[in-house]
Amino acid sequence: MKSNGKARVLLVKHWMECHDRGVKSVVASLRDAGFEVVYIVYMRPEEVVASALEEDVDVIGMSFSTGAYDAHVPEVMKLLKEKGMEDVMVLVGGLIPDEDVDWLKKEGIREIFGAGSDLNQLIELVGTAARK
Fold this sequence. Notes:
Elements: E1 8-14, H1 21-32, E2 36-42, H2 45-55, E3 59-64, H3 69-82, E4 89-94, H4 101-107, E5 111-114, H5 119-127
Parallel strand pairs: 1-2, 1-3, 3-4, 4-5
């Protein structure tokens, strides 16, 4: 957590996904709201968790423009548990079909933000994540 008490956020995008306009907009919005944001492009879920651990983040936001979330989300959640990082809030954004929302939440995803989501809602939720 930053010294100002605001949550630290890791936003990630898979290297095979070239559509990054949305996630870059989220990076800018969260930074403008005062959060410290780290943005990485990753290859494997292990890199997401290693970065989250190294950066001591409170929130991980994973952006998907393909169906890769069905393989990546369970692996990230498993690795977070193995590392004792269950307190990290995990969010998913991008092109997520409505029929997958319940499954993602059962996997441990706190919230899903699709195209056109309210950025103020995201900022408010991230604001609740600063560790006590």
